[in-house]
Amino acid sequence: MTPRRAAWFALGIISLGLGALGIVVPLLPTTPFILLAAFAFSRSSDRWHAWLIHHRTFGPLIADWRAHGAINRRTKVASSLAMTAVLGISLALSVPWPVFAVQLLVLAGVATFIWSRPLPPSQS
Predict the structure, then answer these.
(1) Alpha carbons within 13 A on the beta-carbon side of 52
(2) Average pLDDT over the chain, rounded to whole?
(3) Distance of CA 96 to CAs 63, 83, 90, Å?
(4) Most CB atoms closer than 10 Å: which of 10, 61, 78, 121?
(5) How far apart (Å, rounded) are the C-alpha atoms in residues 50 and 118?
(6) Which parts of the chain fold into alpha helices (H)?
């Protein structure tokens, strides 16, 4: 493996790990890291790339994004609920208002991006 392919592979592994961690950590996004992992693996490892795009959970997400720039309704709702939960937890923990304001602005931007993406044709 060339150094360049090794760097892409390392980025893919790190992105996949962060995406998997994002499943259980509310403020860490899953989807962008999985998409980045697919991109990195496409440049470094045919085996890992094939595994990821054929994955039962992540494969359809990657296919929808590649083909249509789309995010399915279930993912949009789940991410919105997670963002709402993060804000609720922050309120319950009485985080300082400047921190809460930054969270609110960042999450509002993320939500705007997510909801501005089209649905896949199967859900339109």
Answers:
(1) 27
(2) 91
(3) 40, 18, 9
(4) 61
(5) 25
(6) 3-22, 31-42, 46-53, 58-68, 73-92, 97-116
